[in-house]
## 1
Amino acid sequence: MLSQSVEYALRAVVFLARAGEPRTTAQVAEATQVPAPYLSKVLQGLARAGIVRSQRGVGGGMTLVPKPDKLTILDVVNAVDPLQRIESCPLGLREHGVKLCALHRRLDNAMKSVEDAFRNSTLADVLADPNPSVPLGSLADSAE
Amino acid sequence: MLSQSVEYALRAVVFLARAGEPRTTAQVAEATQVPAPYLSKVLQGLARAGIVRSQRGVGGGMTLVPKPDKLTILDVVNAVDPLQRIESCPLGLREHGVKLCALHRRLDNAMKSVEDAFRNSTLADVLADPNPSVPLGSLADSAE
DNA sequence: CTCAAACAGGACACCGTAGTCCAATTTAGC
DNA sequence: GCTAAATTGGACTACGGTGTCCTGTTTGAG
């Protein structure tokens, strides 16, 4: 349902948020268990979207740009692989314009519920979540 | 988010439900604006799942098997392209077993909301929906 | 029995996503 | 200014989803 790239991007962003300091692609890759060369591409996308900032050279790496309470899961998803609502009837008939048929209105409502859920989850929410099993959390300091 | 195949399958099922009688793949394809050879494959999948019954030879075609009020959108989706919940942590760490981390619990909740919405929409609901713009509805009798 | 209608199934082409690899470029520190 | 660290970008492969085509098989009707 969600692409691999989105999954990787979210893991990376959570990791970078916990770090608070620049981390190299290699460090992020190891901590989040993602193939480093591919993660590199995903992070480039996040950089283009302004979600992370990249710094080359010694001591460089990737840093999260927005404050965690200002960055939502939806922001990350849309930066990597925008989730598309059903705007108009997928059939050729554009006479129906804005209004959707019974079927596609239901499908779009499901999309909307996902969108809303993602918009209402900030990175800060995720970080603050008290959960006994915290895979990404336990890895946060692995690069220290 | 949802695959083309799912979209095609749902259009076909709605059309067949309205028809109530066998319709050939060609008829379904034209009414739902789907490439016929590909729709053929999708319908084969629905047949294997028991959602439609196929009859060869003259006067044959595809017929919807379940009563529309017993068939949900979720049934169709799962027959074609099962939407997968996040069961366990996608990271290598299976020590966490059932419990999901804060991030993946949120992602899975979004999946669950979609699943629930689809499970609560029967074909009968879709058919009965009074909507001024009814693309698929207006096509229901095009094969008569 | 024969023929035409209709589905079944396999082979193939196309394209986007996932993933790898390597050369080029920027940059901090000695 | 040289070197090592680090990102950037392009080229490449692999694979699955989408879509086409063609042959075979079933089946009803004359």
Note: Chain A touches chain B through 45 residues (CB under 8 Å).
## 2
Amino acid sequence: MPSPATLHDVAKLAGVSYQTVSRVVNRSPNVSTRTMEKVNRAIADLNYQPNRAARSLVTGKSNAIHVLAFDIHNLRTLPAMQHGAYSQGYQLRLSGFQRNEDAVRDLRACLRDIAASQVDGMLLILPWVLVTESELSDLMGKIPYVVVGSSLGYGTNAVLVDQREGMRMAAQHLLDLGHRRIAAIQGIEHYYDAQLRQETLEKVLRKNGLELVASERGLFEMVSGYEAALRLLANGPDFTALVCANDEMALGAIRAIKSQGLRVPQDVSVIGFDDLPFAIFSDPPLTTIRQDFNALGTLGLQHLLSLIRTPDIAPHQRLLYPELIVRESTATLTSPTIKGRS
Amino acid sequence: MPSPATLHDVAKLAGVSYQTVSRVVNRSPNVSTRTMEKVNRAIADLNYQPNRAARSLVTGKSNAIHVLAFDIHNLRTLPAMQHGAYSQGYQLRLSGFQRNEDAVRDLRACLRDIAASQVDGMLLILPWVLVTESELSDLMGKIPYVVVGSSLGYGTNAVLVDQREGMRMAAQHLLDLGHRRIAAIQGIEHYYDAQLRQETLEKVLRKNGLELVASERGLFEMVSGYEAALRLLANGPDFTALVCANDEMALGAIRAIKSQGLRVPQDVSVIGFDDLPFAIFSDPPLTTIRQDFNALGTLGLQHLLSLIRTPDIAPHQRLLYPELIVRESTATLTSPTIKGRS
DNA sequence: ATAAAGTGTGCGAAGGTTCTCTTAATGTGC
DNA sequence: GCACATTAAGAGAACCTTCGCACACTTTAT
């Protein structure tokens, strides 16, 4: 078989018009059982598959969902999205781009391109605050979209984990353990999560009459956590607990702390954020805030699908709650050395 | 503007025929500079974007590459593929499926569906040996494809890292350190990498007049490495070195070893495979075999592109070489306890 | 028996491109 | 100033599908 079969081929074989074949394929009710059977047999014989491009041309739909993400590298929600889309009969398309000075221009170009390919909906992963709500809305035109993992405002459909609540739990956990001298390694500037986590940490401390002892910025990956921790330690370990904006940096930080002859958690308690797979196998196992990325991905896709099917739903956000996972990298404040100082 | 502009809209505005606009868009040489300018201005004014579906319908191409992968969860080659595709003007589509008893049927269904959407090429990530070379070739029809990370045979275009060489280096490293009693945690049965690594390990040992002391199977993730190590240790630590089929399992194994009051590397040397980001930050930092997943992804995409552009290239494979990264989880055999036993 | 409603099927058009062919306009050489 | 090659641009068909409309035929209600 050189070129794939078309509606016409099937029609000829089944002895009906090609429109009738179309009706069978699309499960139109107005077709008799007899002809349906004939047609189905012909379809099977020819191994007919509807041409997606032609279908898309006439319907203006594509049965595809586009995932646009910054930094695909740690796109932890992707598996759930893919699985959800596939099980609902949607194709998944993917594009991502880097964090650079042209990001907004890139985003614009990307969206133009995507708009031309008639996707039915988009999932946007924009950890970085780079467009306003109304800008995005303009760029997207009439394509339904859901922002996953961050929020641009109450007018945008979004699915996210309550970062404030997560950091509140982390901070409270350390306070409950008796820590008063707390330092932080925060995430990338302008990142939505990083900002919220840092803000909330400071707020909770302030409410308890405390301030951060010190704070360094990292890039959400291990090496930067290591380096940030070394910088913090350079001034002497004048803190008993270290809050890291994610698990990767926490892992780096733990290594830095150990390298200075200090112990985790006896000398410094360390808490992470995310609960990545390696967190439980770090030494010591990492206390952290779990975010359920699978749930996030699944929920994002569901939200988008409901938007596609019922376009005039009022914009709303779906919020997931994180969970404190206490392991062994945090402990009650006991070290006499540190106690003496505080 | 309710509906997006078409060739006809642009043509009307520019005062030319729509075919001329098409020529401008596709950079046909036979168009005068004057009209080209007029048309380009009109395109800009109307924010015209060619309709991909219509284009795809007539050309039979889609400017899209499909990545079909088992277990998207750890698709480390994806970022490079995405980046490569994007920079070459190709869209990336993604589908993945689970490892289950219906895998072959799923694969078949997936490929049928993909064939109908006229992708220009496919990248297949099939870590699991589940179809033969000729089966795959039949399923794919005339769509160009490259298998990434595994090899089905010499007739299939593939890009991969030399697993044998990697394991050879790992084994030799341990032998050079004086280890003679070596155990292994192997990967998932039927996985291409798992098989090759295990085979090679056994072969190298045999060549040196040795045999594996023990061997347990894991599932390529941390918990299973932990459990496999515990099983190995249950018979007493009658080995001085442990080869793990990947870093995740190595991390789990290290934890298990420590939990039994043994030290890494003093009592047991542990070596991993892959060199994932966390490997350098484990405690102790993990000696491992580095695979360059970015290079693998980039090369896979390049290979596919060259296939698309020059279809009658003879099938061939591109081989990357791994690298031994010596860190602190392996050491020379010194422990007298173990020495006494051997 | 007749009109109305319902069912199954065919016909033609449309959707936005690209491709081949044809025509008009321009330029070249003697 | 004429035949001829070359270049620029238009005309029409084709790609494969869905959708609205019309037609024929069967059933139901009056």
Note: Residues 293-309 of chain A form the longest helix (17 residues).
